[in-house]
Amino acid sequence: MSHEPETFTQAALRLIAAIPRGRVATYGQIAAAAGHHRAARQVARLLHAASERHRLPWHRVIGGKGAISLPRGGGFEEQQARLEAEGIRVDGQGRVDLARFLWTMRGKR
Q: Which CATH class is domain 8-99?
């Protein structure tokens, strides 16, 4: 039986869906694990286009420096509230302690 290789989009969707409650991943981390380490912006576009349809935990994906990337008044507050509801502390600048909350993806690739 022949299996088609998983596309970047399929891999990214699978990885985002697997981020556990109380953990975050970065756009770049998802891109690298999906096979394209320089495709962080593609992950952001994918989240924007497919989060609702695929019921993805979009709020668990943050910028590479550990901060919420959405602007204040443009989704920042909702993402912060969702993260904090899962026990993830977000500081006044929208940063998350990656040493404490980053998902390590063990066994995911």
A: mainly alpha
